[in-house]
Amino acid sequence: MTTFPNDFLWGGATAANQIEGAYDQGGKGLSIQDLMPNGIKTRPTDEPVPENLKLEAIDFYHRYAEDIAMFAEMGFTVFRFSIAWSRIFPNGDEQEPNEEGLAFYDRVLDECEKHGITPLVTISHYETPAHLAREYDGWTDRRLIDMYVRYASVLFERYGKRVKHWLTFNEINAIMHEPLLAGAIWTPKDELSDQARYQAIHHELVASARATKVAHETIPDAMVGCMVIAGPNYPLTPDPSDAMKALQADQANFAFGDVHVRGEYPGYFKRTLREKGVELEITDQDRADLRNTVDFVSFSYYMSACETADPAKQIKGEGNIMGGVPNPTLEASEWGWQIDPQGLRYALNQFWDRWQVPLFIVENGLGARDELVEVDGQKTVIDDYRIDYMNDHLYQVGEAVQDGVEILGYTSWGCIDLVSASTAQLSKRYGFIYVDRNDDGSGTQERFRKKSFDWYREVIASHGGSLTAPEA
Ligand code: BG6
What we know:
Blueprint: E1 9-13, H1 16-19, H2 60-74, E2 78-82, H3 85-88, H4 99-114, E3 118-124, H5 130-136, H6 143-159, E4 165-169, H7 179-183, H8 194-218, E5 223-230, E6 233-235, H9 240-262, H10 267-276, H11 284-290, E7 296-301, E8 305-307, H12 341-355, E9 359-363, E10 373-375, E11 378-380, H13 384-403, E12 407-413, E13 433-435, E14 447-449, H14 451-461
Parallel strand pairs: 1-2, 1-12, 2-3, 3-4, 4-5, 5-7, 6-8, 7-9, 9-12
Antiparallel strand pairs: 10-11, 13-14
Helix pairs in contact: 2-4, 6-8, 8-11, 12-13
Bound molecules: 6-O-phosphono-beta-D-glucopyranose (BG6).
């Protein structure tokens, strides 16, 4: 028996900068990622350096047809990918788009169409043109709103007949923690004022709302969603002060969804601004623009975290952008991200109760080191750890469906191995498909099906019926 709705979309997710490579081909300009050889660990370089694995990534730019065919073999009904802004507007501030860049995504969409795969497109996924970061200090500058809306409008015009599902910004709340990655803000984060950071947040939120409006006008049946990091915060102890801390940490995240769904800033957010002495420049037009709300909320989910009011215990662990105080009851991945399948059901219920709009899980998965072995003459990876992780998370999605949560679909992160956003490594692998490329840049780029490839095909074919209840 399966609990998933009949039209539930099953698939995988990627981002242009983590798969395409060809960083200087097809008229593409530099993006911030081309200057980030160490991910978020160090300051960006002035020029691209050969150690940056993203410059070639997994060469999706040339291998997209083969890769999408493998997704189809698994039975994907949806493929989430992003469009590299710097392929369309190389510097970001041009008036006219780059036709060669647009034509590339036409070809990607042709392949999706050929295999009956629904495209889910992220307009901006951590890959703002570098020029906008260096010359404008990214989203701190109000002029980026118009540039982004121009870029998004070009995409809606060009692809609107074929793409109905759009996400405006990847993990928009990540700007709180990684202003360069998520806000293209060149100023080092320890020098960034609260005033500038929150103004940048406001600009992104207005840009997202304006793009949503244009999408609805251009594509009558468009479904536009925001995209946030979901990471529920649990109180470390039953102490009410810990519970309040956990609530406030959740609210810091909810604020982004609240604006996207409700069209205005919530009271607790205004309080934060007051307490930080931030006075946002908000025009009447901005307020009107924010009223263009989204059709659904999408999110990434990798982990939960704990919060405590006790300063002595406020020691942050590793984690997806945000991290938090480690939960003593949970185990972690090799990269220290704690594994909490029930947290996904928890987040789904929180979001549904709060917003009452459909939800889409557009990232979830396990980054792990894989070993390529030979079985019956075929190279593969026996990734039972990944299968267990995904089974347990998807099982909880099924539980949430039974809780009454409306869920549009699930795209696992890095359905094909790709370059990590936080560490810029290829050895942190998420895929069902192994890519022969290593951290030192060596490798043939050949693709191999992992054990999880067949497992996921079975999950999709059975519409979730093959998922098993986690061991008690
Ligand atoms: C999300 C991002 O934060 O997590 C992805 O949207 C990223 O771009 C993913 O790759 C996994 O993180 P990482 O650091 O393991 O690549």
